[in-house]
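TA notes, week 10

Several of you asked for a full example with nothing omitted. So below is the full record: structure tokens for the whole chain, then the designed sequence directly under it. When grading your own attempts, check the secondary structure regions first.
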């Protein structure tokens, strides 16, 4: 257990290092107006904190920096709450309210605003497809017996699915089939399309079409969800290049794996795995993260809801030298506001 004096020194050191990105020495801490301890005493306490695993000493500097264990203790016990600026809260509300027309646009805008306010990369895990309902469906033939089915949801999301037109289905029948699907399936959640096809469409199609078997083969291709390994969740990114502004990632060898990761949806979904159901603010520091690529980063997340049901999460990714207080405050505000807006849109 740390002494009160060690806690004060650790808090000051972490705060200074977050601001400066430079190792902090005992003389720097001793010059603070609220510090009445000699540099020698501070140096001894810092040596003890290093021995306990809360600090590290870079080889090129006499000063020390926090270890991942030190950051964890800071976040759990020492961090001062950052209430942010009142204008920030107003900006986030107006920024989202201006996009009330489509759920997907609201979520994407959230990623952009969170990144701008924190100056880190924002990653938003969007609602699963079970919240999306079919708004319209189109079929665009191309080539020989090939077509693209275009599904548009009530959230503004568009999915393109390649299908093969079965033998025996005449091209002139396609328009009739599209009208039938739009009559019967509009308003059905995407994850229920396949069952609705057999309960709402099959009997009608059997009565009015001689190509029943072929048409049903075509329809089944259209409503079969594509398995991309994401579990039906979508990723929205904001400020992916902001990580380049951090001194820790000016080394191209460190930066490249992160930038590559931003292109891999499955890996990003896995990175946020479990954050939606956990609720509240979650802080993963360094090796606490599931993905090795971000073992030198911190990920702070907050879940958001629709009608009180958790459907996604907002994450902020940055170096372990992160302004935790500001990030946590921003995510608290955004998760509440986003939940309210999405609940309104879902009514």
């Amino acid at each position: 257990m740390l002494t009160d004096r060690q806690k004060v020194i650790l808090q000051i050191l972490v705060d200074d290092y977050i601001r400066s990105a430079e190792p902090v020495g005992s003389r720097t801490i001793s010059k603070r107006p609220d510090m009445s301890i000699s540099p020698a005493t501070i140096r001894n306490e810092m040596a003890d904190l290093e021995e306990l695993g809360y600090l590290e000493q870079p080889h090129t500097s006499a000063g020390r920096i926090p270890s991942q264990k030190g950051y964890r203790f800071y976040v759990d016990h020492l961090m001062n709450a950052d209430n942010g600026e009142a204008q920030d809260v107003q900006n986030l509300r107006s920024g989202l309210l201006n996009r009330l027309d489509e759920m997907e646009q609201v979520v994407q805008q959230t990623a952009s605003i969170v990144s701008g306010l924190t100056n880190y990369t924002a990653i938003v895990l969007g609602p699963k497809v079970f919240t999306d309902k079919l708004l319209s469906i189109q079929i665009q033939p191309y080539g020989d017996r090939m077509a693209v089915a275009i599904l548009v949801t009530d959230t503004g999301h568009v999915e393109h699915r390649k299908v093969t037109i079965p033998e025996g289905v005449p091209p002139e029948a396609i328009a009739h089939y599209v009208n039938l699907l739009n009559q019967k399936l509009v308003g059905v959640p995407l994850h229920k399309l396949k069952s609705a096809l057999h309960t709402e469409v099959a009997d009608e199609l059997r009565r009015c079409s001689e190509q029943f078997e072929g048409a049903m083969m075509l329809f089944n291709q259209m409503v079969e969800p594509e398995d991309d390994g994401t579990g039906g969740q979508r990723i929205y990114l904001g400020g992916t290049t902001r990580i380049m502004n951090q001194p820790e990632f000016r080394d191209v060898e460190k930066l490249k794996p992160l930038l590559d990761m931003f292109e891999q949806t499955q890996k990003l979904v896995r990175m946020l795995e479990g954050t939606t159901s956990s609720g509240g603010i979650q802080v993963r520091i360094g090796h606490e993260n599931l993905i090795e690529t971000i073992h030198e980063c911190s990920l702070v997340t907050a879940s958001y809801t629709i009608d009180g049901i958790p459907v996604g999460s907002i994450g902020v990714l940055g170096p372990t030298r992160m302004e935790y207080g500001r990030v946590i405050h921003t995510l608290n505000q955004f998760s509440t506001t986003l939940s309210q807006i999405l609940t309104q849109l879902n009514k």
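The longest strand covers residues 309-319. Use that as a sanity check on your answer.
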